[in-house]
């Protein structure tokens, strides 16, 4: 049986935060300066598919490897290593407790991972990527771990990845322990709790982001005075209002907090020294379009949010699909439902939220 190949496949969806994670209090353990909350998008639209395999027949000299969208990817970085180490340690504990189990923890790992969206478009690919990587290996190792336990491991790959282990509405609680054992994600509500929720992804630019999230947030923590206000006052309040809005399925406060929190996050980026700008002219046009839609309707119909890049995600309810998607189509002259022009400009409406 030495040549037996053990294998497991899984998918993980992209999540887009409505209360943003921005800042680390411990860069090694990847512990955040604040809690955050996100919405998991539909797997059919944006997801990573990952297969993990291991075998005693894999040459030890090659070690572990990862093929990402068909290209070899470096696994020697601290983040991937932390995930491999944690997962192997849990498998080794199972093997120690039950000597009849095959010694998978000692075999080289081969990981093959594919995104069904353009990686370069900056659409939270690390979140789906690390969530899928961790769950694929956990499945391969048959670990009896809950999604929250796996979120502790995925967090060390990329902070936002800990939220992609759940579908629906997901909170990452910052925790307070120095070892990070309480900094994990939980599900605030299933997607089915609020089935009318929709997300429209507007790809304003497929260019790779100028300043990575990891280094951008470190610069913000080190230099922005606005940041203290954000983590001490703004975010705790946004988390509380957002959780209630989700429980109550109340779109107006959901939308207001989403937009305010995005603005607050980008304000701390502008307050970073030297300043960091993630939004571009297309992003600002999207903000104006949302304002116009809401003003014309006389109620809150849509909410925008931007991560560490110019692409917009617009949240709205199903009944307002024509109003929102129609307006964006008209205002931006975009292509609906396609990654046209190499995804340089495209609108991708999701049909629903699911996953997890
Ligand atoms: C703006 O999770 O990519 O998307 O932990 O350094 O990998 P690392 O950062 P990452 O940061 C995401 C930042 C954000 C906000 C969010 O998703 O909450």
Which overall shape is indicated by the principal axes computed on the Cα atoms?
globular
Number of helices: 8
What is the CA–CA distance across the termini? 34 Å
> Total number of β-strand segments?
15
Low-confidence stretches: 336-356
| Helix vs. strand class | alpha+beta
Instruction: Estimate percent helicity.
Output: 25-40%
Provide mean pLDDT, rounded: 90
Biggest sheet details = 5 strands, mixed
| Small-molecule components bound | ligand DP6
Q: Assess the beta-strand content as a share of residues.
A: 15-25%
Main sheet: strand order: 1-6-9-7-8
Task: Give the SSE string.
Answer: EEEEEEEEHEHHEEEHHHHEEHE
* Rg result: 20 Å
Describe the structure.
Pfam families: MDD_C, MVD-like_N. Residues 199-356 form the Mvd1 C-terminal domain. One of its GO terms (cellular component) is cytosol. The chain is an alpha+beta fold and 356 residues long. 37% of the residues lie in helices and 22% in strands. The chain contains 8 helices and 15 strands. It has helices spanning 78-97, 125-140, 147-157, 213-223, 226-248, 251-270, 281-297, 321-332; strands at residues 5-13, 15-19, 24-26, 31-32, 36-40, 47-55, 65-68, 71-73, 109-115, 169-173, 184-189, 197-203, 302-306, 312-317, 346-349. The strands form 4 sheets. The protein has a 5-stranded mixed beta sheet with strand order 1-6-9-7-8, with helices on one face. A hairpin with a 4-residue loop joins strand 3 (24-26) and strand 4 (31-32). The longest helix is centred in the middle third of the chain and has 23 residues, at 226-248. The chain is globular. The chain starts with a strand and ends in a 7-residue tail after the last strand. Bound molecules: ligand DP6. Ligand DP6 is lined by residues 17, 20-22, 30, 36, 126, 158-160, 213-214, 307-308.
């Amino acid at each position: 049986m030495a040549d037996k190949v053990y294998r497991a496949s899984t998918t993980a969806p992209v999540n887009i935060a409505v209360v943003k994670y921005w800042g680390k209090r411990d860069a090694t353990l990847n512990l955040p300066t604040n809690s955050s909350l996100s919405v998991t998008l539909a797997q059919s639209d944006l997801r990573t598919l990952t297969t993990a395999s291991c075998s005693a027949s894999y040459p030890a000299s090659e070690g572990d490897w990862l093929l990402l969208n068909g290209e070899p990817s470096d696994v020697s970085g601290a983040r991937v290593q932390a995930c491999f180490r944690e997962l192997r340690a849990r498998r080794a504990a199972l093997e120690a407790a039950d000597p009849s189990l095959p010694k998978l923890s000692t075999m080289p790992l081969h990981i093959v991972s594919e995104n069904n969206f353009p990686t370069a478009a900056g659409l939270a690919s690390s979140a789906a990527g690390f969530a899928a990587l961790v769950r694929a290996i956990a499945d391969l190792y048959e670990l009896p771990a809950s999604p929250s336990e796996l979120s502790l491991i995925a967090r060390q790959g990329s902070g936002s990845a800990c939220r992609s282990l759940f579908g629906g509405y997901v909170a990452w609680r910052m925790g307070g322990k120095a070892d990070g054992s309480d900094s994990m994600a939980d599900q605030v509500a299933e997607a089915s709790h609020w089935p009318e929720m929709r997300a429209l992804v507007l790809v304003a630019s497929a260019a790779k982001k100028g300043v990575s999230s990891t280094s951008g947030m470190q610069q913000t923590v080190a230099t922005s005075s606005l940041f203290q206000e954000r983590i001490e006052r703004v975010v705790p309040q946004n988390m509380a209002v957002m959780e209630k809005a989700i429980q109550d399925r109340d779109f107006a406060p959901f939308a207001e907090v989403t937009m305010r929190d995005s603005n607050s996050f980008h304000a701390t980026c502008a307050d970073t020294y030297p300043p960091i700008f993630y939004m571009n002219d297309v992003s600002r046009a999207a903000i104006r379009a949302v304002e116009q839609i809401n003003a014309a309707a006389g109620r809150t119909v849509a909410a925008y949010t931007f991560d560490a890049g110019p692409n917009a995600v617009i949240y709205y309810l199903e009944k307002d699909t024509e109003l929102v998607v129609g307006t964006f189509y008209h205002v931006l002259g975009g292509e609906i439902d396609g990654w046209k022009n190499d995804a340089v400009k495209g609108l991708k409406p999701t049909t629903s939220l699911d996953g997890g």
